[in-house]
Automatic annotation (TrEMBL):
InterPro entries: Thymidylate_synthase_ThyX (IPR003669), Thymidylate_synthase_ThyX_sf (IPR036098). Keywords: FAD, Flavoprotein, Methyltransferase, NADP, Nucleotide biosynthesis, Transferase. Binds 4 FAD per tetramer. Each FAD binding site is formed by three monomers. This is Flavin-dependent thymidylate synthase. It is an enzyme of class 2 (transferase). The gene is thyX.
Length: 220
């Protein structure tokens, strides 16, 4: 399951452990019971989230492959209750892939012509930086040193494993209008996948625990 994000990025679900019933089983073990019927199991999930009983959701785990600009990755990795492994600029040569804002980006509040010129300035700067990077590599400068000339708009990739409880926090903070626009787009892609794998949990989370303002009940 892959969702394209921005101009060259993506969020890809590569593995997951569990689903809605995983949380149900974890909660009912306290009483020596298991899953029952759909209506009661769904009602239990809503009860858990309405009352802040979130530990059963730690048993649901997602593993994603993320491709995003470095500046997005650095914000992402502030969420520390998760596991990360990232593409290494010491061991591989970075590709010439940069995120370039669009001329109609609402944060560029000039004329269409001026906004277009700003985007060309971005692109020229990125291309110049990559040319320097390539020249340094041609001069046998180690990759770990040559990479320091590259900008934060460069695309990186990483593997992210996270449980559903930590995902609640991630979505509340990043699928929110206070987050940077680019980060919002990735958070909404993650939410779409989360909803497909755990629809009951997602619905109850949005209703009772979500504190952001971009995800609404019945949407995504």
């Amino acid at each position: 399951m892959t969702i394209q994000v921005l101009d060259k990025g993506f969020v890809k679900l590569i593995d997951h452990l569990g689903n809605d019933l995983t949380a149900v089983r974890a909660a009912r073990i306290s009483f020596g019971k298991d899953v029952m019927d759909e209506e009661r199991d769904k009602r239990l999930i809503e009860h858990l989230l309405k009352n802040g009983h979130e530990s059963p959701f730690e048993h649901i785990v997602f593993t994603f492959h993320i491709k995003c600009p470095i500046f997005v990755a650095r914000q992402w990795m502030r969420h520390r209750i998760a596991s990360y492994n990232e593409l290494s600029g010491r061991y591989t040569q970075f590709g010439e892939e940069f995120y370039i804002p669009k001329a109609d980006d609402p944060r560029l509040k000039l004329s269409d012509q001026q906004n277009g010129e700003i985007c060309r300035i971005f692109e020229d700067a990125f291309n110049q930086a990559y040319d320097v990077y390539r020249k340094l590599l041609d001069l046998k400068v180690p990759r770990e040193l040559a990479r320091i000339v590259l900008p934060l708009s460069l695309y990186t990739e990483f593997i992210w494993s996270v449980n559903a409880r930590s995902l609640f926090n991630f979505l509340s903070l990043r699928a929110d209008s206070h987050a940077q626009f680019e980060m919002q787009q990735y958070a909404k892609a993650v939410a779409t996948i989360f909803k497909q794998i755990c629809p009951w949990t997602y619905e109850a989370f949005i209703k009772h625990r979500y504190t952001g303002d971009l995800l609404k009940e019945g949407e995504v």
